[in-house]
Amino acid sequence: MIAAAAEDNAIGKGNDLLWHLPDDFKRFKKITSGHKIIMGRKTFESFPKPLPDRIHIIITRDKEYRVSHPDCQVVHSLQEALKKVEDEKTSFIIGGGEIYKQAAPFSNKIELTRVHTTFKDADTFFPEIDWTNWQLVDKEYHPKDEKHRYDFTYLTYVR
User: Fold this and answer.
1) Would the pTM of this model clear 0.85, i.e. be above it?
2) Phi and psi of 28, rounded to 5°?
3) How far apart, in Å, do the first and last CA atoms of the chain sit?
4) Could you tell me which CATH number the domain at 2-158 has?
5) CB-CB contact of 128 with 3 (8 Å)
6) How many Cα atoms within 13 Å fall on the side-chain side of residue 5?
7) Does the keyword Oxidoreductase apply (predicted)?
8) 8-64 pLDDT, tens per residue?
9) Based on CB atoms within 10 Å of each CB, which residue in 82, 128, 130, 131 is the most buried?
């Protein structure tokens, strides 16, 4: 899984992010490029267009939902999405909140950007993770600056 979440696990509101962190966007692009990315329909629809150099696997319950783009595949369950990546060395769950919650038991790595603030009006959250089964293998702190309104830390966990 790859996500950015505030201290209270907030990740979004109104199908949009709560912050703008250019360095985190660059890191997301670097980590996910060349891989299959699994997401819910609302997460997909929050993009202006499909992300380049990635195969998008979009989960929706809507059996009529279609995306006419060669890098997009529509499935109707997390299990169906996971089947599409079973032969991949690396693939990513990229959101939203419900997809993260469903996918947590199947994940072996979490790339988490912890944004050091809280948001009272968020409507989407990263799930609570039982960290006792996870090992923190990398940590990199970034202070706020002229491009980043909040301090944040990249955290890489494996199990």
Assistant:
1) yes
2) -55, -45
3) 12
4) 3.40.430.10
5) no
6) 23
7) yes
8) 999 999 999 999 999 999 999 999 999 999 999 999 999 999 999 999 999 999 999
9) 82
